[in-house]
Amino acid sequence: MPGKDLLLKTAGYFLQWRYPFRLLKIYEKWLAKRWPVPNLAQFSYTTTIREIRELYGQEKPVIWASFFFPSEFIHAASCKAFYPEIAGGLIAALGLAHYPFREADQNWFSRDLCSYHRLAVGMSLLRFFPRPAALLATTGICQGTVGFFKWLSLIWKVPCYIVDVPLQNSKDAVLYVARQLEEIASSLSRRLRITFAWEDVFHLSRKTGELIEELEAKRRKKEISFSPPTKNLEYLPYYYQFMGSETALAFFEKLLRESKGANKSSCAGKAEIIWLHLKPYFINQSLDSLLEEFGFEVLFEEFADVYKGEYNVERPFETLARKVLHSLRFMRADLRIKRTLAWLKGYGAQGVIHCNQWGCRQSQGMEFLLRRSLNAAGYPVLFLDGDHLDRNYFSLEQLKTRLQAFREMLG
């Protein structure tokens, strides 16, 4: 429709107009007076407003990164981190995904592509995402990410740096990845005139990691549960995009403090599970309603498994290389199976739900290996087919039937 196309292009033009977004600072000051000690929900809201101002206001260079590129690299350069795959979940949750999907379709991007990538391409073609100064990506955990980011580079006409991730986690692999990160830092320093300062960023990541470990310990003891059951998957920006910033530290402090008031006395009567992959964000309430209706309790989520190793200021690139190689746990079937079994035992879970994503060959390719290994260990596993962002590839009735059958199996 020509009228709608014109409206979308006009909206994209204004979204790249930085100065009006900087006025949001007035609103932020008003919010700070209204909520001098914000609770978790108020903190998340004010963080969102500040992010919109800083990303679209372009007060600092905005650097986009793929899911497993360490955010500390960007924060250490005093740049704004933006993760288009994470932002895709928010766009879908807001019910706006059909606009970028339509734009991607009209520009001949295959519907067989991962919808996280297809949505980000559409948002970029519409100029709805904040303009990047550079793009950073790794080949772990998905080779599709490489082509996706190279396309983004052509759309936005900015440099794209790809880190090649080997399949082995060894000393040589750490040095190989570290050298690439150092070369990228050197290139960005010249291009964007930035410098890297690691001490504060690594300190914040270390402290945040300690809070995450405390949260996990409480979940293992059944002292904390999330409601709705997959709520923790909505906190991904704090696990990834904000790691190494004051924002992540403050968020997990509040999450721990407020969760203490929601202690769980017993899981009696519920089916306790480990959740693999992400979830459908566009039908979030419906999915969670079904999980609650059938009595499922999510004890841990695969994507909450973030790097908790050493942060060495003297060797920053080797530190971040180890964090990059941590993604092998998602990429290699043997490591993925091993850690899933460890979670099942450590959390005392009864089984696994793996929420497939349309076009995600990485996880679908190891489905049989996962099923065989988990079943051999005595754990049932349910693979839910569908899409996390595109409702055209998801059947709510099929989801209901399969969840009900799995719940009956678990007893």
UniProtKB/TrEMBL annotation:
UniProt-listed Pfam families: HGD-D
InterPro entries the record matches: FldB/FldC_alpha/beta (IPR010327)
Database matches in Gene3D superfamilies: 3.40.50.11890, 3.40.50.11900
Superkingdom as given in the UniProt entry: Bacteria
Family indicated by similarity: Belongs to the FldB/FldC dehydratase alpha/beta subunit family.
This protein's name: 2-hydroxyacyl-CoA dehydratase family protein
Organism of provenance: Thermatribacter velox
